Amino acid sequence: MFIxxxxxxxxxxxxxxxxxxxxxxxxxxLMAQSSCVSCHTEENMLKNNLAPKKEKxxxxxxxxx
Amino acid sequence: MxxxxxxxxxxxxxxxxxxxxxxxxxxxxxxxxxxxxxKSLAHQGLVPSPSLSxxxxxxxxxxxxxxxxxxxxxxxxxxxxxxxxxSRANPDKYKTIDMGxxxxxxxxxxxxxxxxxxxxxxxxxxxxxxHLFRARSDLxxxxxxxxxxxxxxxxxxxxxxxxxxxxxxxxxxxxxxxxEEMHAAAPEDLKGRYHLEEAAKCTDxxxxxxxxxxxxxxxxxxxxxxxxxHSQTYTNCYSCHxxxxxxxxxxxxxxxxxxxxxxxxxxxxxxxxxDFNFMLVRHIPIDPELFAHYEKDVFAxxxxxxxxxxxxxxxxxxxxxxTATCNHCHGNRDLFLSNKDLLDYxxxxxxxxxxxxxxxxxxxxxxxxxxIDTSGVKTGxxxxxxxxxDNMGKENLVILDARTEDAYNKGHIKGAVLLDPMKSGKLRxxxxxxxxxxxxxxxxxxxxxxxxxxxxxxxIVVYDDDAWKAAFLLSVLDYCGAKNIxxxxxxxxxxxxxxxxxxxxxxxxxxxxxEVDLQPQFIVDNQFVRKNLDSLDVLIVDIRTLDQSKKLTKxxxxxxxxxxxxxxxxPVYGFYxxxxxxxxxxxxxxxxxxxxxxxxxxxxxxxxxxxxxxxGFFILRYLGYPDVRVHDAAWVGWEEFVRYxxxxx
Lengths: 65, 649
Known about the structure:
The complex is a heterodimer. Chain A contains four helices and no strands. By secondary structure, chain A is mainly α. The longest helix of chain A is centred in the N-terminal third of the chain and has 17 residues, at 9-25. By secondary structure, chain B is of the alpha/beta class. Helices cover 29% and strands 12% of the residues of chain B. A five-stranded parallel sheet of chain B has the order 6-11-10-7-9. Chain B has a five-stranded parallel sheet with strand order 13-17-16-14-15. In chain B, strands 3-4-5 form a three-stranded antiparallel sheet. The model of chain B has no long low-confidence stretch (mean pLDDT 93). The A-B interface holds A 34-37, 39-41, 43, 46-47, 49-53, 55-56, 58-65 and B 1, 5-8, 10-14, 17, 25-27, 30, 32, 34-37, 39, 42, 104, 108, 122-123, 131, 145-152, 237, 245, 247, 249-254, 285.
């Protein structure tokens, strides 16, 4: 059985301190960046993750005129 | 257009994150799982092109009105395309047409993203500029990436002289084809793209023509489509066939294409009669066997719709050969579509477009006569396929093939000797040397000619497949003092089409001595060009295509975009037609005069590396220009020269 307890003054202070540090260093922005952005803005990371797609070109590829 | 490297296609620019669209979370438009720890999980449920599948969902929240309308626009639906295809078939074949269109033709349709953020699917996709959205579509990466083989090539001088809107106005596609047209919803029963109410018209800008000061406008408006008078020749495609290769990938091939010009009768289905009576027509690539790979006899009603259709070439010039004198059109039977121009299977289909003899406007008796001095034209410098066939085997006749070794090995004119002038180190200093791509010492060139069995006294006929390589080689022969040179008009394609003998055998070459009789006056250096930039007697002609001379692109080896100050822009393809064809000398002379390139001046031709310049030099020499010179250093040398003036380049 769990016992519900109020947070200690120490843990409240620690949480507040962590948030202050995070905001002051702009870490919230970094955290807000999705994994999409972190990969798709890094050319080398993309290069390692992408294999050239095998495709046969049509005889004419820009025939719309 | 070269495809982007895979990683560059999906590389997002940091600037995007600060843009309006960058404030939207990726998954809002693209789905997927942004919190996933690896690529495969992150990409589950990913929608790469959200505006393609759901334009209103992807873009409609902010651009509500546009997204609602644009989903039915011609770029998205290609509406009349299917309508016209189906009008040639019975309903039981519609399924095959839909399937064929989806497999082979629909890659051309696009979406919001295809015009505002990415390159279209037909050129391999990829972001134009790091996923940054742009309201105005990019001429090179978007519009002409699809509309490239005709419109892009015409507009940028890759077929013909280019378009005056590009040369004089620096205009891009969206300057005429505005958002109202691009986003307009096309009615389901739209007969053709020209019927779209919002479609761009010349008169949107060029107003009051009928009551203007130009007499020919007063006379011809309401009778003749603007392009009839103001276009250059354009390409016609024949007989598109579709199929599936061994790997199951769909392909299509065009059997034939011809650069020409034909005037046809306007007919209701394609051009409302109120607009004009005569219009330019081009052969579209339709063929009864288009989808025969999938099902026979799909187009049982092929005769219902003409295969010669209204066209609006994007190579407009104020003065064209048609405007030179009334009788270039009036009474000129060859310019008007006739039954002789039709293939057997399309005669009935095109009767409403064909101009019968009695509909040809009568010759005008009193009209200004053109005075074009063709006395200087060196007629022997151009020979046709029949002449060459008749003269094969004659003593001292040497035939040079200026194509690549690969093309030569697949088949060449019997007895022709391979000399690819573009092959590194053959005629020009290689890249990485002090004078890259400039001609080697005359003795070195003469040694090569001798090794190919050529003497300066031989009659040397040169051919290729697109004219300028052969003409460049001829210019080098001329510079070295060859006495008797000729360009094969129509090149290898015309030779082959005429059924003349082809071979894959390499002839035995007997080395000879080529005695150089150098013509040093034919070549000028950077110092000469700089000294004469402001000279009224010296004209610098930049013969590059307009994308390069107008600074949209550059040669891969050039350090910068640009052109020599004050140079006249006249693309090399204004001299040569598709498949190494040539326009008549009097037409070329007239056109050049209109552009200020006249024989009374010293004409210096420049390009990127000197090869196109050589091709232009040959044509002007053929036309009898007394003082023509090649700027051999060309743009790659010039930009080094002006950047580091002290280096003595």
